[in-house]
Amino acid sequence: MIKTHLIIKLLLISMSIFGQKEIISQVDALEFDRLVKQNNGILLDVRTNSEFNNGHIANSGNLNFYSLSFRKKLSLLPRDQAIYLYCNTGYRSEKAAEFLLNNGYSNVYNLEHGIMEWDLEELPVIVEPGARPDLDNKMETERYYALIKSDPLVFIDFYAPWCGPCRKMMPLIDSLKVEYLEDIHVVKINVDASKKLIKHLKLIGVPYLAFYNKGELVYTQNGAATRAELTNLFQTNILKQGLSAIH
To answer: Which of 122, 137, 192, 212 is the most exposed place for a label (fewest CB within 10 A)?
Structure first.
C-alpha cells in the first residue's frame, strides 16, 4: 500500500512538472527600463517601420508584426538571451511573446501597456531623421477641452491606425455619426497624432471611448463596444437631455 501511494505521488509530481508552461513576464514601463539597462538581452520593437521612426526606445531592433515573414524572423532570435518586446499598447508584443514561448523560448518580457505608458513616465525615445508623423484627426489639449463643451452631447472615439479593434469599429462609428448627426457630436481622435493630449489624459490603451453630457464625463470604455451598447448610451443621454430641457 505504501509503495502504491509513493508511485501515485511521484506520478502526480511528474505530471505537474511537465504540465507547467512558461508565462510571459508582464512588466510596467519603469521596470522594463530597469531590466533593459541591467541585462544584455535583445530589445525588440514589433510595430511598423513608420511607428518605429516616430519614436522608439534606444538600441531596439524593429520587426513589423504585420509582416508576412514576422514569425519566421522572430524564430531566428537566440534562445539563450532575455528578449524584451514592446509595441504601442502591449497587444502586438504580447502576441509575439506568446509565439516565442510556444516555440521553446523561456526568458521573455513584455512592456505590458506599451510605449504609451513609456511616454507617460516621460522615458526617452528616439525619433529618426525624416520621420513623418501621422497628422490625421489630430487633437491638441486646449482644443479638446473646448470640444467637450461645444455641444450638449459629445462622443469621442480614441483610436490608432494600427489598432485592429479600432479599425473594426470604424464603420460603426461612422454610421453612428450620420445617424445621430442632429443630436450628438461624434469625434474621432488619432492617439498617434495627439500624443500631448494622450499624455495629459493618461491614456494607455485603444480603443478608448468617452461620452460627455454638458461637459461632464458620464461614460468611458476601454476596448471595443457593440452597436447595441452605443445605441443604448446615445438614446439614454438624448432622453436625459430632453427631460432636462423640459424642466
So the answer is: 122
